[in-house]
């Protein structure tokens, strides 16, 4: 375990020995909880490696267990690259709100404003924010198998017929957020990968995050294992980069979480963009659907988190209640997102008002419920979930 702590102000040195003793005891308790719970989950689901990062008001702790590859026995570190799956969507949403903050697009404008090819189609008249809230009208989780290239993709979007009116139902989907990423990059007049890797990632201070892992970083790229424990890696499809194609380590992701909590300094336009992703647009039970982020009023019950991150929410269409006007970013909330590919599973969560955040990355796709329980147990040690 590695622990990084910010400097204490001189005034806090009064009674410093007592504070140090309390901090050491608290740290030891947290360390034991993380060790015990993480190893229990790894054993239960036969997970080769796991990296956990925790931020408590700017104090960072990193916990790394197991191996990045059973074949090489390379140890997991906070720089080990994991496939993020749908956690990637958070960065796509941030790119869109960053373009908006820079005056390059507006999330309330229709899609055909930015893609004239869709003029006259049903999809073209849908406002952009529906693409980032899964409420465009009933997209499937994945593109149909027959879609293999951009031309086929655009033909699919032109011909697409919604099952519902926009803003009435939530259908968790990759095509819609992928389209938002395509439009955001187009508004910035650069390819999507360029917008992310050469503009957004550096602006966030991320130095170990990629859509295409460079040759000199392949040794840090963890091997994923599927539910049958076979070695697998991402098999990208159309708009994969935009929807689920990012690779990163726990240290970079914790920096992203801290930026969302205002603990990391970024440029004003990007800070606005981060806040805009946490605008609430729709309610689904206890969950408020932000722009990709999902949030719950604190104190949140574990059962509500488990339900909000369940397969039912991922695979079944749910009716929504529109928030009009949209809900401004909140402080007293639990905000989270799961992500997975065939061989990886991850979870990020934070509480802005408590300045608490967590990142959990593993090189196996294991159940969301286990990830949520693990995060809740760890943050509960830091007082996340009391009245």
TrEMBL record:
Q: Which Pfam families match?
A: Beta-lactamase
A molecular function (GO) held by this record is: beta-lactamase activity
Keyword annotations for this protein?
A: Antibiotic resistance, Hydrolase, Signal
PROSITE patterns this protein is in?
A: BETA_LACTAMASE_C
**Catalytic activity, per the record?**
a beta-lactam + H2O = a substituted beta-amino acid
All copies of domain Beta-lactamase-related, residue ranges? 36-379
From which residue to which does the signal peptide run?
Answer: 1-22
Q: Name one GO biological process term.
A: antibiotic catabolic process
A GO cellular component annotated for this chain's UniProt record is: outer membrane-bounded periplasmic space
Could you tell me which NCBIfam families the record lists for this protein? bla_class_C
Which family is this protein grouped under? Belongs to the class-C beta-lactamase family.
Record protein name field: Beta-lactamase
**Originating organism:** Pseudomonas cichorii
